Every structure is written in structure tokens, then in C-alpha cells.
User: Fold these one by one.
Assistant:
Number 1:
Amino acid sequence: MLGRAVDDISTGSDSEYSNSWISWFLSSKGNEYFCEVEEDYILDRFNLTGLNNEVSNYAQALDLITDNLDDDIQDELRGALDVQARLLYGLIHARWIVTARGLAKMLDKFKRVDFGRCPRVLCQSQPLLPVGLSDTPYEKSVKLYCGRCEDVYSPKSSRHGSIDGAYFGTSFPHLLFLVYPSLLPPKTGPVDSTPTSRSIENDSSRKSRRVKEEPEISESLGETGSTASVALKAERYRPRIYGFQLNETAKLQRWQEAVRDRQILRLEALEDLS
């Protein structure tokens, strides 16, 4: 499904091919998330190591991106090569945006709020950043990461929602905040990654009182399972850079999960009593 959606993203006339392929691609509707990859980066073959195994007709797709494709074969193969050229440019783009110059270009788009704002009310319209849930093409579509609530959201536009997440990679937004720490938004509520035992007990006691005061929550889940089982199935996004979870975020999430596990034990005890 994602592959078909990527193949369908082509909104340009033949006259637009008189300009460079990259400018045509960036001006096409649905490609607003992308930034321009500098030509010298694309022409440095070291930066493209391994991509020849990911893209069919790699050499011709690269020639099309750099406007060096032979005119004799351009007309008969343009449709098929456009698909491969978009795939190749997207994979190059994922590598480019984690370089110093690429981060600077994406920073400009972030400041212009080109990627939209967080739909969560308490995030107070925090600007978002694109992120992939996988670095492998055709697996997951692009999502939008909020640095305030540290969660991911689907793009509002179906055009943007069909972009392959591998074109941005799993590391980009977290690396951007690492390079530009002043952009990291403040969190609402406690942010200490190593809270005291008293604060943990107070937080747990407040949650347990809330469960006692709101018994209808567990009753409403009678058909789908217990509250504890539903809580155990809940997934959360884990920020990573090149596969490694961020240190401070990892410590905070381990503490949050420890609190959640204790709360689940209390929920199971309450369900056993009922």
C-alpha cells in the first residue's frame, strides 16, 4: 500500500522538466517536508555507499536526479525512473539531514513550522518534526514527532501521510535537539529523571485514589479485558539515535514504567477483590 502511494506521488507537467529534477521534485505537492540536498553531497559517491543495493536502475536514477540522463532514453524510461529517482533521493535525503548542513536546512523549516504543530492541547502548539519509525523503505510512513510530549502523530494531509518514513530516518529529530539543545521545549509537570522515593509514593497514591474514585473505568472495559491487561498492551514511542535510546529519556521512561507497573499491580488487586 505504501509502495503504491509513493508511486502515485507525481504532480508535475512535462514542461517542468526544463528545470532541474530536484527543484521539480521539491515544488511538487506533497513534498513540502523535504529540503534540498546539495549537489556536491549527491555527487560524492562515498555518501551514497550501499544505495545501489536499494534502488533498481541506480545509475540511471542518479543521472536523472543530477540532470545527466541521456535524452535518447529519457522519454521511454522516465515514468519508471521517476519512481526510482524519488526513492533514491529520499534515501539520500535521510542521510543528508543528519549532517551539519542538512540539520541547518531542516532547522529553518522547523522554525517556519513547515511540519505543523502538535495536536495535543497541553503542548500549546509545539512545532513538530518528521521522523521515521523504520530506516527500511516501504515499511512505515512518516510520522511527526513532538519534542514536548515526546510522542508521534500522523500527518493531517494524506499526501504527507503517504511519504515513506525511511526518507527521514529514525534519528533525525533527536539529533536535531542534541545539536541545538536550546530548541528542546520544556516539559509540563515533573521533568526530573531521578525523582525521590517520596515523590514516587505520592504519585502512586494519587493514582490509586483516582482508581477508587472512578470504578466505572474498569467496568467499561468488561468486554475487551481488564484495565491492567489493556495498560500492559499500551505502546509508547522510544526516541533513538542510530538505534540507541537517549540516556536521559531512557532513565525517565524506566522510572515511568516502574510507576506504571506498580499501578498495574494495584489495579489487578482491585479487580481480584471485585
Note: Residues 38 and 96 are 9 Å apart (CA to CA).
Number 2:
Amino acid sequence: MPQAGSLLSYMSVFKARLKSAHNQRTMSGNEHDWLALKPQEPSPSQCCGGGCKPCIYDVYEKELAQWERAKAKQDKSLLMEKKEQSNNSELNPDTFTAFSISSVEQLTEDTYQYRFELPGNSSLCLSLGQHIVLRGAVNGLEVQRAYTPISPGNAEGYFEVLIKCYEAGLMSQYIKTWKKGDMVFWRGPFGGFPYRPNKHGELLMLASGTGLAPMLPILQSITDDEEDETFVTLVCCFPTFDKIYLKPLLQDLARYWNIRIFYVLSQDRAV
């Protein structure tokens, strides 16, 4: 028979091994929990290519560093600062915010004007030339694209975007499903155009199709400022006269003494 001391020693080793195995299972489960919370690296389709600061990859690096700090301290409460989206209707460059579609207007067979609602008389307060980033999902793949609002930067209670849908476009597949009342996620603003009133005597703008979008807020800021005497020539390129976007708005702008608008029609022989 084993001695009492030997038996006690054996039991101690056995208990130690059981405890070690339990700890390993606990650590394994804990590690799995942390891996489930680890931020996922963005796919190329999630980058809009617009030079945003922060880019989606910058946001990922920030969230990854936050996750690593929390994991090192074994404190999941440190991850509570992480926000992927918001519903407070305040545009933010770091997080996506939900905005409701208040109207949809089809301008041509493939181009639409969307109006999004802002609470009360709030405004996006965009600087000239700034764009915002749209997030969509198609067949489980997240896609992001940049668009410049066509509404004035100080428009109250709403903002508008001009979007052309392409037959094979990933984002276009998502946008084609939009209807009034849908919630759509945006973040921004980014970029900008360094325009100052009366800095230049004359501006020449060249725009093709929806490339007209970033020109409109600049034109509207000039016409809204009685002190700005900058002369602007806008040359718009469209396939035909029927496919010119926003004719009423362009006609109103052309009535100002310092705004001149020309149309180049690539497929219309009758005009």
C-alpha cells in the first residue's frame, strides 16, 4: 500500500492537474470570446477611394488598437467606446449615421435625386466641395461610395444627392432598392474646395453627367452672396438635351449676370 504521505502528494498533483486543465479550458473560452470581439479588417469594396480622413482603414486601425488595449487589460468595458453606427442624425466622419429618405425623384432612366430628412431645421453645415460616404450591402458584401450633396451646404431640414445607377454597379444594386422612408447610413464630411469669394475674377467649370454635383453648391454660394462678383462659366456635358439633369435649377442660376452655362450634347444632332 502507498504511504500516507505519498497518497497526499499524489492527490495534490491530481488536483493541480485538474485545476490546470480547468484554467486552460477557461482561457480557451475567454480567448474565443475576445476573438469574436476583434474588429474585422475592411475589404477593398468598403473603401470609397475618395481620400477620406479618416478612411475606413484608419477607423479599423483605431478600433484594432482599442481592442488590443482592452484585451491586454482583460477589460471588455473599454470596448464600449466603439461605435459602428449612430441614429442621432448628426453627421460624423468616424461613424455611420442613419438618415431617412423623404423623397425619390427619377430624373432620367438611370439617374435619381434623393432627399434625406434632417431633424428640425438642422443642417449638415458642409463646406464647399465636401463629400459624404454612403454604406450599402449587396449579397452580404459591404460597399462604400462617396457622393457630393447637391443641396446648399447650409440647407435646413434636408440634404440632397444626385446618383447615377449602373447596370453592373454593386452600390447601384443597393440604391435601386431605396424607397421613401428607408433609413440609409452616411458618414463624413470629407474633402473640400478652397474657394474664397472674389479671389479669382473668373472660374471655368467643366462637368460631365453627375460630375455636375460638386459644382452646384459652389454656384449657389456665389449667387447667394451679393458681394461675390466672381464670373463663372459652366460647361455641362450630356448625351442629349432630354438627359440634362436639374434643368430648372440650372436655368435659375443662368439668370444671374455673372453665371453663364453652356451644354455640350454628344449624341443629340437635332439641337
Note: The longest strand covers residues 96-106.
